[in-house]
Amino acid sequence: MLKNKVAVVTGSTSGIGLGLARQLAAAGADLMINGFGDAAEIEALRQELASTYGVRVAYNEADLSIAAKATGLIESTLRELGSVDILVNNAGIQYVSPVHEFPLERWDAVIAINLTAVFLTTRAALPGMKERGWGRIINIASVHGLVASADKAAYVASKHGVVGLTKTVALETATSGITCNAICPGWVLTPLVQKQIDALAAKENISTDEAKTKLLSEKQPSLQFASPEQLGGLAVFLCSDAAAQMTGISLPVDGGWVAR
Ligand code: NAD
């Protein structure tokens, strides 16, 4: 379905981004992967993705907290793979602290990676998409783009910002064959969430399993984590013709979190 399309997935060396990259490659898209990690492990992953799915896979190490690198990720993809047809803005970080103690440098880092980088990659990818008359921009926001939780000021602000940016880009591209949508996951078990589970277990002196159950029962009525594969399936759907008239929306995948 996505043969001859090139997908850039930011932050795809682990977690949700890797799940999204796998599903897009399984649907036939060539890939530009990005993110941090051990160089040898990333090269092994690059080769494994290429051979498993029979697609071209390149890697770019851009640190998206640096504006020139975020733009450079798109420029490198155009040079190495020829186009950017699908842009999945997935890279994101979290920092947990009450507002009155929130360090400015953590605020700046969260906003830079979770929000400003989304603006920069989108700005760089749009001219080519417009020229080709087709494009899919999928922003991995969060339920925290729709509702808030205490102690996550920068994350909640950045994800609400992504939801707003998604709507603006959708309006600006509405007649261009381009769609721009956000996916809003609830809890997904990835390294980012594992850190919060470990912190909760340590703080409350409970086991990791108990901490997982506590985390889920506070917010996610299904009491189950969403999976990177499920999010990948939704991303592939958003790239399909069936979704060509869906734009500017934010889709929760959250086991009922925002239904409460
Ligand atoms: P993760 O920590 O497992 O993966 C994050 C990825 O981003 C990694 O590949 C990492 O190397 C990369 N990354 C981090 N900083 C980067 C930077 N400066 N430049 C380039 N790459 C960078 O996290 P995850 O849980 O898979 O989260 C992915 C996205 O999903 C994030 O935007 C996150 O906010 C969002 N999300 C996650 C959950 C969840 O429950 N895990 C829920 C809602 C939304």
TrEMBL record:
PANTHER family: 3-OXOACYL-(ACYL-CARRIER-PROTEIN) REDUCTASE (PTHR42879), 3-OXOACYL-[ACYL-CARRIER-PROTEIN] REDUCTASE FABG (PTHR42879:SF2). One of its GO terms (molecular function) is 3-hydroxybutyrate dehydrogenase activity. Belongs to the short-chain dehydrogenases/reductases (SDR) family. It comes from the Bacteria. PROSITE patterns: ADH_SHORT. Pfam families: adh_short. It comes from Roseateles albus. It is an enzyme of class 1 (oxidoreductase). The keyword Oxidoreductase applies. Its EC number is 1.1.1.30. The keyword Glycosyltransferase does not apply. Keywords: Oxidoreductase. This is 3-hydroxybutyrate dehydrogenase. InterPro entries: 3-OHbutyrate_DH, NAD(P)-bd_dom_sf, Sc_DH/Rdtase_CS, SDR, SDR_fam. Signal peptide: none annotated.
